[in-house]
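Pinned message: reference record for Flagellar motor switch protein FliG
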Amino acid sequence: MNLTKPQKAVAILVAIGAPKAPELLKHFKKDELKALLSIARGFKNVEPEILEDIIREFEGDFAQGAGLMDSADIMNQMLIKSLGEEEFAELTDSKKRAPEPSKEDVWSILAKADIDRIVVHVTSENEQAAAYILSRLPESLTAQTLEKIEKTRRAGLVARMLTAKDLRPEAARLIEESVRQVFGGTASSGPANEPGRLASVLNEMDRVLLDDLLLDLEPRVEPNQLASVKARLFRFEDIVRLEQDARSIILDAMESTLLTDALRGTNDDIREAVLSAIGQRSRRMIEADLASGAKGNPQAVADARRAIVAAVLDKIDKGEISLGEPGELAA
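Predicted structure (tokens):
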């Protein structure tokens, strides 16, 4: 009787029997367990002398003459003991368990979905529904999704996001249900949008794509609406557009470590715009740190720059500072 190595493994496991074999079975992957169970069902009888040869081959120290009868039943019993009845049923497809519904709301699940799946779903919806879906995503993810959408469609969606009024609750529920059917999740609650959010989304977009988008928006939206968005478009490199007094108000109150991280890898204009707005002692400390040439942690750099941008936008919203025109260097 010529047995394959997997068949010999089944023979060994059955010969070991309870309680030792179930402990070994815990170390097998599910696909391996399925293979072993399938093999066990395929043969019923292994003579004692053949089993002895197998044991000797595996260099085991097993009792002689154990034999192997009804290997499938024995394997079933050991798997049940090792895995439990529920897992055994799932393994053998004898009882399909319905997946437990996610307790996360639909928008939390969507925020963690693959970006290409999101793009496909958004582009399959009508403009109103697509704009609403984008309004429920995190700002950076909304920006990434917009960047992947075709140019004309992108401009139409952003124009809709800028000009659309709040959806009726019934319409919002229908859109949400269509997303839930694809991505799962529970029903949600809460506002779909916040004032100034669109500008924050655009701040996350690639600068070249953003400039192109702003041109495409001009014939689609009212000049005053577009101007209100442009007034809040600010990125870290735009720090040079702030007047000296405005920069001092914001930057002089910030931690030196945060400013150091933000300045790593910047050009001379940006570096000077920041350093000239803070006290001399802090400036010397930061310059000494930057002189090492260390690039720093990319996440720490991004977080530091984002914190500065948030502080600037907060002051703009409160009317405490204003921006110069894009491309304009402040004195």
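Pinned by admin. Summary line: The first strand starts at residue 45 and ends at 46.
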